[in-house]
Design goal:
alpha+beta; eight-stranded antiparallel β-sheet; 30% helix; globular
Length: 325
C-alpha cells in the first residue's frame, strides 16, 4: 500500500529471527527505515530512554528557569487545511483525519537539555536533528502476544470533572471508537483472537504549561504463526500508525498530504526497541525538530465531521509543551 523499504524490513526480520537486539526508526510515509544494533546506537548519536531500554547517564539538575515561546499560525491559516479535511469527510473520502501543523518555537534549552530533563514514557534524541517525548505506545510484543494502546482525546486537567467530561464528550468518543476499530482491524492482519481488553481508560500527563488527561484503550491478539519472530514484516503490515493517520488509511493519507503542506518526516512515524525476544515501540509524537537555526514543534489532532475549528486549533496549541516539572 505504501512505498516501503523492503530490504530494511527483511533485515529487521532476520535480526529478530536471530534474536539480536536492535533499535529502529521508521518515518511517517514508511520511506526511511533506520536500524541500529546495540553497539551502533551510541556511535550514531542516539539517546534513547524507554521503559525497557535506556543508554542515558544520569544528568545534573537543570539549574535554569525554562523559557518556551511558541508562534502558532493564525486561525485563518489553520482553517485552510481544516476546511480541506472537512470537505473530504463530507464527500465520504475519510471519516477520521489526523491533521497536524508545525509551529515555530523559541526556548532557552537545547535539544539535549529538553531530552534529559523532560518526563515521558518514551524519549529519543537523534543527533542535533530532533527530540521527542511521547506518551503513546504503538505496539508491544510479549511472548508472541501483540498489544496496542491507541490514545485519542485530550482535555485540560484543570477543568472541573475533566476526566468524566472527556469520557462522555460526543466528538472525542466518536474519534476514540473509530481509532479503536481501525487498530483492531490492523492487528487482525498479523494476529488472531484480537480483542479490546480495556476501553477508554484515562492517563494523566503532567507538563510545565498545563496538566492534561488523555484517553486510551488496550487491544491485544496472538501473533499468527507466519509473523512470529518477524518484527519487520509486522511493522510493514501495520504502518503508518492508524492513530496518527485516520481512516480509511490510503485515501486519508492523500487528504493529509494535501491539507498539511509540509513533510512530517519522522514525526508521527514509529520507533522501537527489540530486546532479542520482546518488542516495545512508540509513536513519535510531542516532537521538536531543528531546521537550520529554527526549532519547530509538530502537533495536531483527529478531525471528524463533528469537529469545531476553534476547538481543533486550541488542541493543536495545547499540545505544544515540554514535560519538564
Amino acid at each position: 500500500m505504501f512505498s516501503a523499504n523492503h530490504q530494511k524490513f527483511i533485515e529487521m526480520d532476520e535480526l529478530s529471527h536471530q534474536k539480536v537486539p536492535f533499535f529502529f526508526m521508521i518515518d511517517f510515509l514508511v520511506d526511511k527505515v533506520e536500524i541500529f544494533t546495540e553497539n551502533e546506537i551510541d556511535k550514531e548519536g542516539l539517546l534513547i530512554d524507554f521503559q525497557l531500554f535506556s543508554n542515558v547517564k544520569k544528568q545534573d539538575v537543570l539549574d535554569k528557569k525554562i523559557e518556551l515561546k511558541s508562534f502558532p499560525e493564525s486561525l485563518e491559516s489553520f482553517k485552510k487545511g481544516f476546511d480541506h479535511v472537512q470537505k473530504n469527510i463530507r464527500q465520504g473520502n475519510s471519516y477520521l483525519t489526523n491533521y497536524t501543523r508545525k509551529t515555530r518555537i523559541e526556548t532557552n534549552l537545547n535539544l539535549g537539555e529538553i531530552f534529559h530533563h523532560s518526563h515521558a514514557k518514551y524519549k529519543v534524541l537523534y543527533k542535533d536533528f530532533f527530540v521527542f517525548f511521547s506518551p503513546e505506545t504503538f505496539v508491544k510484543i510479549i511472548d508472541d502476544k501483540i498489544l496496542t494502546y491507541p490514545m485519542k482525546g485530550t482535555i485540560d486537567a484543570s477543568v472541573k470533572n475533566a476526566a468524566e467530561i472527556l469520557k462522555n464528550d460526543k466528538k472525542e468518543k466518536a474519534e476514540h471508537y473509530t481509532v479503536v476499530d481501525l487498530l483492531r482491524n490492523d492487528l487482525s492482519m498479523v494476529a488472531d483472537d484480537v480483542k479490546v481488553d480495556k476501553f477508554q481508560y484515562i492517563d494523566f500527563l503532567k507538563t510545565k504549561q498545563k496538566d492534561l488527561y488523555a484517553m486510551s484503550s488496550e487491544i491485544s491478539g496472538n501473533l499468527k504463526p507466519e509473523f512470529k519472530g518477524k518484527v519487520g514484516s509486522i511493522m510493514q503490515k501495520l504502518l503508518p500508525a492508524g492513530s496518527i493517520l485516520g481512516a480509511p488509511k490510503p485515501k486519508t493519507l492523500e487528504v493529509i498530504i494535501e491539507a498539511e503542506g509540509f513533510d512530517r518526516g519522522f514525526y508521527t512515524g514509529v520507533c522501537g526497541w527489540f530486546d532479542g525476544k520482546d518488542l516495545d515501540s512508540c509513536v513519535m509524537i510531542r516532537f521538536i525538530e531543528k531546521e537550520g537555526d529554527q526549532l519547530y514543534f509538530k502537533s495536531g489532532g483527529g478531525i471528524t465531521h463533528m469537529s469545531k475549528l476553534e476547538d481543533e486549533y486550541q488542541e493543536m496549541k495545547n499540545k505544544i509543551y515540554v514535560p519538564i516539572h
